[in-house]
Amino acid sequence: MKNIIYLTPENYIGKGLHRKCYRHPEDQNKCIKINYNAGAETETNREVKYYNHLLKRHIRWNCLSKYYGPIDTDLGIGHVYDLIRDDNNQISISLENYLKQALTDKEITDLALALNHLYDALQKDRIITMTIKSKNILYQKRHIGNRLVIIDNIGNARLIKIDNYCRYFAKRSIDRKWQRFIASIKKENSTVLEAYFKLVTK
């Protein structure tokens, strides 16, 4: 008999374009994503296939929410990931929402450092994303150093996925998407972008 995980409204965290996210009722450090519309299956299948590719490569998961596989729930098949929490045990907020806040000089500097570390982590582990958007990134506050964690829009939609295996093409793909992401940050909070450019041009 299958072990069914029951998800209640109290477990609900939020939703994206195709999937809803719930706290795992048996593990406070994990979450479960559930498809909720017709377009979700294609996106989920692409993402899961790519996550399995990353698992085989034994990446460090420095900039991604780690994937643990499928699970049966009363709402259908779900997929289990790390739930990103701050050191105070609160679920980390999105970069999109953090950029809207009135930030101190230290907070701006810390975020610029986190942006730089995110780029380095993407390059070192050759993480391919569909796009990089602030709404799909959580800003995790930790005593050992804050970090940015991508939680959605992972994977490769190209027909010939050479950038999955070749470092040169992976770097080019990551750089293209990073430049678009940085341009979007300028619109959301230009002060943070200025601090980032000062950091990377030292």
Can you walk through the features of this model?
This protein has 202 residues and is an alpha+beta fold. Helices cover 38% and strands 19% of the residues. The chain has five helices and eight strands. A five-stranded antiparallel beta sheet has the order 1-2-3-5-4, covered by helices on one side. A hairpin with a 6-residue loop joins strand 2 (19-23) and strand 3 (30-35). Helix 3 crosses helix 5 (190-200) and helix 4 crosses helix 5.
Task: Reconstruct the topology from this structure.
Layout: E1 12-15, E2 19-23, E3 30-35, H1 40-57, E4 67-73, E5 76-82, E6 93-94, H2 95-99, H3 105-124, E7 137-140, E8 147-150, H4 167-188, H5 190-200
Helix pairs in contact: 3-5, 4-5
Short characterization:
The protein has five helices and eight strands; from the N terminus they run βββαβββααββαα. The chain has 202 residues and is an alpha+beta fold.
What can be said about the biggest beta sheet?
5 strands, antiparallel
Terminal CA distance reads: 60 Å
Proportion in helices: 25-40%
Instruction: Record the strand order, biggest sheet.
Output: 1-2-3-5-4
Run of helices and strands: EEEHEEEHHEEHH
> How does the helix and strand content classify structurally?
alpha+beta
Strand content: 15-25%
How many β strands by DSSP?
8
- Tally of DSSP helical segments: 5
- Determine Rg (CA atoms, Å): 17 Å
Q: What are the segments in which pLDDT stays under 50 over at least 5 consecutive residues?
A: none
Mean pLDDT: 94
Global shape: globular
